[in-house]
Amino acid sequence: MQLFDECHDGLILCKILNDSVPDTIDPRVLNIPTALNRFPNHREQQHLPRVIRRGLLAQVDIKLHPELYRLCKEGETVDELLRLTPDQILLRWFNYHLKAAGWKRRVNNFGRDVSDGENYTILLNQLKPDECSRAPLQTRDLRQRAEQVLQNAAAIGCHKYLTPASLVAGNPRPNLVFVANLFNTWPCLAPLDEQEVKDYGMVEDFDAEGEREARVFILWLNSLGIEPGMFNLVENIKDGLIIFQAFNKILPGSVVWRHVSKPKRDAPITV
């Protein structure tokens, strides 16, 4: 109950939000609780976990990190890379470092593929070898190994968002947020040289005809609470599921879900 007592006015949660996504909330507009006014910040509590995830994933962007161009596969164009969702880019980034480390395994998800802590151990060691050793690989007990992995993460300032229990359980959401925080803190990708910039070209901001409008629709659909979150308008609405969700949000009960075919595919993790 102490947790609820401490967080009931929303101020601590607002500080957590600003910690994960700096400058999201201007501290000057926060309502300092008094005996007569203790509720205005409660709205921040309702959607905080989702906002934190989206805030962290929003920084996984080639416009912010041109060096992500290095993640293009052989024969893949930059346009194709741009169509990837942030969680797909993070998997690419994760595997890029595993390959650079000479590690035999790869990750295809943020669940079972990270639950034993081995891939995390290699990733952390590759990112910051002086602070993060490979010692957890020698620990057989998975819970103890998870604790050691997070101790390594704490040594480089990235221990937030994931617990040993969630790691061992292979809970996708906190693992995704954990990896996003790792990337945002220590991307460890060499900047592009002049020739590489010429080879890859430059990504323009959303100012081409139709792109700004697409961005508006993406923001609107995300505001409805559709899942998974939208990142690419054309790609994300191809199977129609997001359109059905939007209909149902606007007119509750308008979609009979048992009649909707859901394609079998690895969908991006809900943000």
UniProtKB/TrEMBL annotation:
Record carries keyword Repeat: yes
Keyword Magnesium: no
Any one Gene Ontology molecular-function term assigned to this protein's record: actin filament binding
Tree of life domain: Eukaryota
SMART domains: CH (SM00033)
GO cellular component term of the entry, any: cytoplasm
Coiled coil location: none
Protein name, UniProt field: Calponin homology domain-containing protein
Organism: Boletus reticuloceps
Assigned keywords, A-Z: Actin-binding, Repeat
Domain called Calponin-homology (CH): residue spans: 84-187
Biological process terms in GO annotation: actin filament bundle assembly; actin filament network formation
